Amino acid sequence: MSNKTAKEQTRIIILILILVVLVVVWIGTSFFVFDIIKSRKLDAEILSVYKTLTINPHREGNRYDFLKKVVEEHGLDAGWRLLKSMGTPSASLDSYLLGEYLYEKFGSNSIKKCHQSFLLGCRSGVVRSAIIAQGLNAIEELKEIEEGCKITDVRNSCSHGFGHGFSSFTNFNIREAISYCDRFQDHNRVPCYGGVFQEYYTFAPPERFTEKDIWKICSGLYGKSYGVCVFNLPDLWGIRYKLNIPNIIKQCLTASDEFTRTNCLLGASFRVVKLVKEDRGSAQNIIDQCRNLFPSTQVPLCIISAANVLVFYKYDSPQDVAKTVCSELEEKFKSACHDAMSLKTIFQTEEILKRHGLQF
To answer: How many whole angstroms separate alpha carbon 120 and alpha carbon 100?
Structure first.
């Protein structure tokens, strides 16, 4: 065989090999693209169904069951994608639900399976479920959960989850649940108090909300637990008594002391942010709502509160909030606004205002 013939054969073999590789790559890419298209189509179908469902206290026939089904049939990543496509904030009830499912499936080790984007709600859901399922005697399991909570700097999401669990565990006995939160170190008590009240107004039976005195739930509480209770009243009034934002603000302004009035208005501001974000509104929409709904003297309070909530719930980056929210304020309010963004909780903005000598 001549050298020329050998070279031609070698060239043909190389071309065939290249052709085979290209075909394999093409087939692989086609399957990959097909999988993406199929996955996106499936995600869209799942999302359209999920939006029609509700959350109820018994976790039956609602989003919880559907979310479980999605994860069991399509994997945990499909569950996280669903929450992302919903525009779900880190601490939404939907992320709580996925945390509850993880605990049901994996036990205390599930705290480490929470997605970085949903740590606040997911961890709270895991801890809530652990308390309800095991009570306060499951010390070893709770220790394992606490270890998992130390992974990142949002560990107060776990104490917040304990508050949720204490509330349900005590059959919504607010004072008893608060007493369990008081066993924590000081920096973990406030998030725990918040969990107690949020669990109460979200899941307590309807007969708990027949009182004509809609402030009564906070009577007999003092100090920080009282402040957190008052902060949560606007959500309670909106969800359980169907008050709109203008009427909530009117109620807040009837408070006889500055501490109560300020915390109530901060809670009203928090509700404004949530409602705007549920409609996929922007930071500018929130500022507009603050200006339209609050008395002119209270508008800076609303905007400062919004800055805290937007960053804490990871709706927006601190840089964007500083640029689009805090910049809207007069100079004397800006430093308080920037400090509010760095808080590790939504329940202590009143302390920032007080530290800066601001009164509303």
So the answer is: 13
C-alpha to C-alpha distances, 141 to 109, 130, 168, 202, nearest whole angstrom = 9, 8, 18, 26
Alpha-carbon gap, residue 114 to 119, rounded angstroms: 6
103: its two tokens = 């605990």
Q: Which one has a higher pLDDT value, 256 or 112?
A: 256
Q: Are 122 and 98 in contact (CB under 8 A)?
A: yes
- What's the confidence (pLDDT) of residue 224? 92
Least confident of 25-29, 219-223, 248-252, 309-313: 25-29
Lowest mean pLDDT across 168-172, 249-253, 268-272: 168-172
Contact 131, 149 (CB under 8 A): no
Grade residue 25 by pLDDT with cuts at 50, 70 and 90.
low
d(CA 320, CA 325): 8
Instruction: Count CB-CB contacts under 10 A for residue 226.
Output: 18
The predicted pLDDT at position 9 comes to: 67
Q: How far apart are CA 120 and CA 96, in angstroms?
A: 8
Check pLDDT > 90 for residue 128: no
Q: What's the CA gap between 96 and 107, in Å, rounded? A: 15
**CA 249: distance to chain centroid?**
24
Read off the DSSP letter of residue 91: T
Residue 145 contacts by C-beta under 8 Å, 6 or more apart in sequence? 108, 111, 126, 127, 130, 158
Report the pLDDT averaged over residues 281-300.
93
d(CA 54, CA 178): 28
Indicate whether this model's pTM tops 0.70. Answer: yes
Distance CA 243, CA 335 (A): 33
